[in-house]
């Protein structure tokens, strides 16, 4: 045995005696908040404590402190449920982000469907023929030129110089007396007028056919234009939908990678394995002074974190009343993460 061991061995009982004396002083002391009970009576018999530990420590100011630790019961199940709750909230947030990324996809798909229906729906045959001012005029001229008895108005034949000249000869040669030699000339002029009207009628009928053909082409072009417009709409909708699908797929892939990284970080983060409520006193002769109180958490990675009570007086009242039964109630007194 070396000299150092010989010297320290007799001093150890004295040191332990000093520690025990300081602890006993605190335990037997009474606090002004409730002098009916000793500190030991109030602190060592709490329902929330799985076990209680008293010790003497030295703080960072080199003060000797009597430290009380109440090891809280139910910590493992509490933080297992808390971790599950936070994880579910995290997954719910991920789901919201994914749905937000796809919010424009369904309307775009519906537009493609609507465009396809518009293009493929049966189109009723349009039996109504188009009309025009020119066709109306030509039909009126055809009716006039189809009269067996020439009109008595020279103005009706002003549209054709040949007919107008024949009509003028016809009107000027008119006589009432059918026995008159001029009556034969009048009848001859009438036949010439009717022949001129027939020739003109053929021209007008040809023009009517041309106009109707032109109007039919216009009508067909309008129908084709409608189909072309529907096809263009479908092309635009399809292109937009495909581009959006590609964009959404890329965004979802990016989100999946982010979410996987966040979950890995969350699942691998250090967890709280045990929690103790701590009170520390300074002993000054026969007097005791509470200098710190709060929660102390021990984490799975070996870290120890402390958080002071938000309201020390309220926390002391809870101890003396023994009215805190669960860790969730106690945790409200200190922001232990």
- Number of helical elements: 9
- What fraction strand? 5-15%
**SSE string, helix = H, strand = E?**
HHEEHHHHHEEEHH
Assembly form of the protein: single chain
Poorly predicted runs are 1-16
Mean pLDDT: 83
Strand arrangement across the biggest beta sheet? 1-2-3-4-5
Helix content: 55-70%
Number of β-strand runs = 5
Domain module tally: 2
> C-alpha Rg, in Å?
55 Å
C-alpha termini separation: 49 Å
Supply the helix-strand structural class. alpha+beta
Shape: rod-shaped
Largest sheet: 5 strands, antiparallel
What would your notes on this structure say?
With 337 residues, the chain is of the alpha+beta class. It folds into 2 domains: 113 residues, no CATH class; 163 residues. 60% of the residues lie in helices and 15% in strands. The chain is built from 9 helices and 5 strands, in the order ααββαααααβββαα. Strands 1-2-3-4-5 form a 5-stranded antiparallel sheet. The longest helix is centred in the middle third of the chain and has 88 residues. The protein starts with a helix and ends in a 6-residue tail after the last helix. Keywords: Coiled coil, Signal. This is Lipoprotein.
In short:
This protein is α+β, with helices and mostly antiparallel strands and 337 residues long.
Descriptive keywords:
alpha+beta, 9 helices, coiled coil, signal, about 325 residues, five-stranded antiparallel β-sheet
């Amino acid at each position: 045995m070396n000299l150092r061991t010989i010297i320290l061995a007799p001093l150890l009982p004295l040191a332990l005696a000093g520690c025990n004396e300081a602890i006993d002083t605190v335990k037997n002391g009474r606090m002004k908040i409730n002098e009916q009970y000793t500190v030991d009576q109030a602190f060592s018999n709490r329902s929330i404590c799985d076990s209680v530990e008293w010790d003497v420590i030295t703080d960072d100011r080199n003060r000797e402190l009597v430290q009380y630790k109440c090891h809280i019961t139910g910590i493992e199940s509490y933080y297992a449920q808390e971790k599950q709750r936070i994880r579910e909230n995290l997954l719910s947030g991920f789901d919201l982000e994914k749905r937000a990324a796809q919010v424009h996809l369904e309307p775009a798909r519906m537009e493609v469907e609507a465009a396809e229906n518009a293009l493929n729906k049966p189109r009723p045959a349009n039996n109504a023929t188009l009309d025009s001012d020119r066709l109306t005029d030509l039909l009126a001229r055809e009716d006039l030129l189809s009269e067996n008895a020439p009109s008595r108005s020279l103005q009706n034949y002003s549209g054709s110089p040949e007919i107008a000249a024949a009509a003028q000869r016809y009107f000027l040669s008119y006589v009432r007396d059918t026995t008159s030699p001029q009556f034969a000339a009048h009848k001859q002029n009438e036949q010439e007028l009717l022949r001129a009207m027939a020739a003109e009628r053929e021209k007008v009928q040809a023009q009517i056919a041309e106009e109707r053909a032109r109007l039919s082409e216009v009508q067909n072009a309008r129908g084709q234009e409608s189909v072309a417009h529907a096809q263009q709409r479908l092309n635009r909708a399809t292109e937009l939908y495909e581009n959006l699908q590609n964009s959404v797929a890329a965004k979802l892939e990016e989100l999946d990678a982010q979410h996987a990284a966040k979950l890995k970080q969350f699942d691998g983060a250090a967890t709280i394995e045990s929690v103790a409520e701590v009170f520390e006193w300074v002993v000054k002769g026969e007097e005791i002074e509470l200098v710190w109180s709060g929660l102390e958490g021990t984490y799975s990675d070996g870290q120890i974190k402390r958080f002071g009570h938000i309201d020390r007086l309220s926390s002391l009242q809870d101890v003396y009343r023994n009215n805190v039964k669960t860790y969730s109630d106690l945790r409200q007194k200190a922001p232990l993460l």
